[in-house]
Design a protein that fits this description.
It contains eight helices and no strands. The chain is an all-alpha fold.
Length: 181
Amino acid sequence: MPQCVVCRPVLAVVAALVLSAVTIGQSLPTSPPARPRLLFTSADIPALQARINGGGVPGWAFSQLSGGASFQVASNQASWQVYRSVRFMLEAAVRWKLTGNTSARNSALNLLIRGYPNAIGYLVPTGGNKPYIEATYAGAIAMAFDLLHDELNTAERAAIVTELQSWVTAMYAGTAGPGGY
């Protein structure tokens, strides 16, 4: 099996850091960092809010985000209506996290799991033969889940994790196969 020449130095640094943490007496983290942590962290929010409130391009771009919508279905889940619903879900979650707007939060939650139809109930992994859908929809669900995590109950979290696992399985088992994206 060929070795990755580029990876060896990175692996050596990671191993040295882990070993030094253990030998110094520090323990490795036992729990993941606080959410959100995919698009931005809680520590990033004040700076993001300042840029948005400062006007210019960041303020204009933020003003273009949807604050809410209902999930639209179509005969084909690759349709623009469905794609727009998935986009609105993520945009509403971002708007809520940066502004505290509960209407945007409620809309994002409905689009993700609480409303009918919703992303978790309607979207179906296609098995990798439509890589754009696989990557876009699964990514949007994961980012919205990260932003809304603390607003979800245990059963909703479990349902979303199961859904995300099915998307990953479809990506690896589909006709495009692993790395076919």
